[in-house]
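Researcher: I'm comparing several assemblies side by side, and this is the next one on my list. It has 747 residues spread over two chains. Same procedure as the others: predict the full complex and return the structure.
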Amino acid sequence: MDVTAIDAIISKFPEVKGNLIGILHEVQNHFRYLPEEELRYISSKTDIPITQIYSIVNFYNRFSLKPKGKNEICVCLGTACHVKGAEKVMNALEENLNIQKGESTDDMNFSLEEVRCIGACSLAPAVVINDETYGQVTPKRIPSLLSKHKDG
Amino acid sequence: MASKTAKQKTVVISICTGTGGIAAGGLKVVEAFEAAFVESKVTAEIGPRTHKVGCRGFCAKDVLVDVAVDGNTETYQFVTPDKVEKIVQEHILAGKPVKKWLVKKDYHDFHSKQQKLVLANCGTIDPESIEEYIATGGYRSAEKALKMEPDEIIDIIKMSGLRGRGGGGFPTGIKWESCRRAGGNIRYVLCNADEGDPGAFMDRSIVEGNPHSVIEGMIIGAYAIGATEGYVYIRAEYPLAVDRLRLALDQARDKNILGKHVFKTDVDFDIKVVLGAGAFVCGESTALMTSIEDKAGEPRPKYVHTTDRGLWGKPSNLNNVETWANVPLIIDRGADWYAGIGSEKSKGTKIFSLVGKINNTGLVEVPMGIPLRDMIYKIGGGIPRKKDFKAVQTGGPSGGCIPASHLDMPIDYEHLSEAGSMMGSGGMIVLDEDTCMVDISKYFLDFCKDEGCGQCTPCREGVAQMVRLLTEITEGNGTLEHITLLEELSHMIQDASLCALGTSAPNPVISTLRYFREEYEAHIIDKRCPAGVCKALTTFTIDETKCTGCTICARNCPVGAITGEKKSPHFIDQEKCITCRVCYEQCKFGAVQKG
């Protein structure tokens, strides 16, 4: 367990009250998921019951108890993207990566998620890979997008 | 060659670096200009300035670049790094704008009916510079307000007619007043930047393009209400907006605009940023507060208003980003000025995101009450590929679809509600003849099923059952009894759910049944999806009289279901066809028929 990392994250916040979700965001960014041992440590350190932490982790879509791939692909399934063919983009990604949405590739290079509207509706259909937003994505563009991020 | 003429020039290049602009390559265009300036020795001689600005609205034309030479501005569209060299050489150095890359008539049409007040500085100032905000009159209203009596401010907001821009349109001044009158010493002002409605991105653009306007609104509100602490609850899905907001808050603290003794008065006020974590329901006021309190974002019953007992049990006033950004304008220019804009009961302007099947997609700010037709055909430039307008979906998952018969309806709170939809946060998703209304209803109900918090049974179980019924209809297994059941469930969920997400979840079904019942019946009785979307109910065939044998459909068919000789009519093998629509979308001659 990486106690130093957790301590460093918690100490960044002036107080725990009102900042638990912020702390969990940072922990997830660090580990690419929320490992159980680390969550128990946060609980003991902050005096927030582990049940409360678990209920948060389970409630919010961004949090994951399973490790995520090195590259996180989020396909926007907002309304504008939906009417402009986001399903087909998702299907093409599932086919290319040989995984279903919500899963990661065996080599942990990619994980594939759906997200409900990233507010880039004028770029529909949109896909976010790590911090980069791609607009007007078509199934044909998927292989080149993936190779751009492979091992990257 | 640059030396003599160039020396007298002042050159400012403004480049869109909102989320849309960056995705289209905005930052690379900035770099290209800077490199080109160094290369052509312009930097040393005239000191041009590249200027990163926020979203300018017309995202369909990104990257948009303003080139201002001695105050004369020309706007370029679709700028890519490889175009920069020519613009520098011909426009900046030789004084001849590159005409073929300048914006065209549609750019001017897009702006013709707009009235940019809240968005006035989005796309013109650098959102990362507090100095630029102050130079355009920023924080003048907050300074003015802090010299007024709190009740005076509340009266101005009430008289202006400002209503909440995030949902039901509750009068802002009345909300402030209730919060101010609530007991106790501690009060909070909150900003809802958890813009979850799919299809809406005005709040993201305001925070990305002019974050100080939101902060200024909150300072005025906090002083009027008597709060010393504020929170902005913002989606983690908006990383650029989060960064710019945090930077703006730091800048405001450095200038003593936030913190202790704001503007050297005895008023204290500061703002914390709380990130959401991907839960749509947290846009609901009580769920948002529960989420800030380190809990799962479950809504609470509202028999006690949040203005009496909200965050941490204290009186709390929640407004959304756009509402807060209106406040400095009203204080600066007065209630009468503001009340003079808009329609009878809906005052001011409203920002809409015009997206979906529309030519000019982007962010639009118009006075309340303009006809829907102007929005779609004048500003939006109509429907791509000369398709027919079918409906516009407003209000997000809580809203509804407004059909073509209502094109002359004024867009304001009252008319949208009468038409069975709502304002919501201002998303406008345009749907054309190729959009299936049953599929759209299923999409929204599915959205609410996934995003519901699961606390109350009517919403949790009822919405899931509605999704099941809609799925059966789209798969060809629907009966007329399905429609009756959908209607019964809708009323039960509306009556019995705890929060607004639940009570409004059936709206997409109710509104599409009101205007497009025959489309449901076509799915059920004729086993046919008129829009050609529902796979089980669609077949594609080729009209031999229209097919020119161009082979584009055959080349694009992913399963090799289309055969035919070049220059003679083609044929679709129904056994192989997976109804993916690729042929329908690719055919330039309208030869592929859906049915």
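Model: For your comparison table: The mean pLDDT of chain A is 92.
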